[in-house]
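tokens incoming
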């Protein structure tokens, strides 16, 4: 417990209720099915008495594998591992069972009380730490930094019941992995994560997975913002469509998206979506060069799209701590399934990291994005610029070393993807018309036109390789190559 909180609780004990803890444990020992009826949020660390936590943990472990957990089996286990004296001996287990039969109906109330008191104790501790931070701030930390740290800690407390989960047994991680594998098996699909809406990309990645940091990098004008917008739209629209069609498990279809447009304004992003959705060139929309029927089409599209679960933040130069705080707040209030950042190098780091150089600053940003993905258990798709080294090579296909400040980005990312459009470079190399070289150039242009390569240069959990996609610059739209030329319905 922090020194700041010690002063607050020095005159009285932290909130707890030993009678409720004893009653709950007695009810579980009397009837193991009681354990399955109480709140799953309750864990051993929530008990005030460490002995009670050990007994609860032992019960949970036995019940999870279908074994009996009662006074006899627990006495044998604690005798074997030398912990019997620590829990008060065999007589204490008998004490817990006294009057247990009439307490089982109230077990859920006892569990909620034990959990609530544990949260109050954590709040007192966190409050003391915040007070201490405010009175003795770290170097280069201002009030806004302290507020963001307080918000992060309180979010963690609200989500997990503890601001620091600490070490957890391997059995818990193993159970989570088996559940994920079972869900993927029952799904009977190549996509076990959040579908991007692009068939070949989903097949290669298996979708966008929880807790993953995905980097999408390219040189300017390659279409990385377009692909990010398309993915964000596809995920949000899949959720909207599922809700409208009345799917009970709509949360498994698409998701709520937070899009941090650090380069574009929210209006520009909306214009791209309208152009994509209606197949009307964004340039004509912006200049008002549209027909009456096209205007009516735009009006209908705006009504259709306004219900999208897509949230846009276009504040330029946002700090990594502010971005984290906004995402945590959004997950608490509206839910959150995907975070898109356009683009990584426009995020600012702390003053301390900035003063240590650009490499250290980018390192803090990528670590912050990866931490955010893990804390919120959502995929984070972050765009990144490539260095000019690409332009100086004959083969302009990007590679991992082309990432600006590539060390930290490559290290922290679970997936690194690049976009390469050969037609972009060919257009700038047109030979003299009528020459033999021009015929060869024209043939290559025809093959490359409106196609893009998405190169997976790193994938921590799967294969690398190249995916061919269709790209229509008129509507800034990517698509499956098999759907080339098709429009949205």
């Amino acid at each position: 417990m922090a020194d700041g909180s010690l002063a607050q609780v020095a005159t009285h004990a932290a909130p707890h209720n030993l009678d409720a803890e004893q009653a709950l444990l007695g009810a579980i020992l009397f009837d193991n099915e009681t354990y399955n009826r109480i709140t799953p949020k309750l864990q051993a660390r929530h008990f005030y008495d460490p002995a009670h936590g050990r007994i609860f943990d032992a019960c949970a472990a036995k019940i999870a594998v279908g074994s009996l957990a009662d006074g006899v089996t627990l006495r044998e286990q604690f005798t074997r591992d030398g912990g019997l004296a620590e829990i008060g001996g065999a007589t204490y287990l008998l004490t817990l069972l006294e009057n247990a039969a009439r307490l089982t109906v109230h077990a859920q109330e006892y569990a909620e009380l034990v959990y609530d008191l544990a949260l109050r104790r954590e709040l007192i501790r966190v409050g003391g730490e915040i007070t201490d931070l405010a009175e003795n701030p770290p170097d280069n930390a201002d009030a806004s930094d302290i507020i963001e740290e307080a918000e992060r800690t309180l979010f963690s407390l609200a989500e997990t019941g503890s601001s620091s989960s600490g070490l957890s047994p391997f059995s818990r991680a193993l159970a989570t992995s088996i559940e994920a594998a079972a869900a993927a098996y029952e799904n009977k699909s190549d996509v076990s994560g959040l579908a991007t809406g692009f068939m070949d990309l989903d097949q290669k990645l298996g979708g966008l997975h929880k807790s993953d940091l995905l980097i999408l990098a390219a040189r300017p004008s390659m279409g990385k913002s377009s692909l990010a917008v398309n993915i964000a739209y596809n995920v949000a629209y899949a959720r909207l469509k599922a809700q409208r069609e009345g799917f009970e498990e709509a949360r498994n279809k698409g998701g709520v998206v937070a899009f941090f447009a650090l380069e574009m304004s929210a209006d520009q992003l909306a214009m791209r979506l309208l152009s994509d959705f209606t197949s009307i060139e964004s340039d004509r929309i912006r200049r008002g060069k549209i027909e009456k029927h096209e205007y009516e089409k735009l009006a209908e599209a705006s009504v259709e799209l306004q219900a999208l679960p897509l949230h846009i933040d276009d504040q330029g130069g946002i700090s990594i701590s502010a971005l984290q705080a906004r995402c945590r707040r959004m997950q608490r209030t509206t839910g959150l399934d995907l975070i898109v950042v356009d683009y990584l190098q426009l995020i600012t780091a702390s003053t301390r990291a900035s003063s240590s150089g650009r490499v250290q600053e980018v390192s803090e940003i990528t670590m912050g994005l990866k931490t955010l993905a893990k804390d919120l258990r959502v995929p984070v798709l972050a765009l990144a610029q490539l260095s000019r080294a690409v332009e100086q090579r004959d083969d302009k296909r990007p590679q991992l070393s082309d990432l600006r400040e590539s060390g930290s980005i490559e290290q922290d990312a679970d997936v690194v993807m690049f976009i390469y459009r050969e037609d972009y470079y060919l257009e700038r190399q047109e030979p003299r018309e009528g020459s033999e070289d021009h015929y060869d150039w024209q043939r290559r242009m025809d093959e490359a036109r409106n196609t893009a390569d998405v190169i997976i240069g790193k994938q921590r959990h799967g294969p690398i390789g190249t995916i061919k996609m269709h790209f229509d610059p008129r509507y800034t739209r990517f698509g499956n190559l098999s759907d080339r030329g098709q429009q949205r319905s």
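note: Residues 105 and 236 are 43 Å apart (CA to CA).
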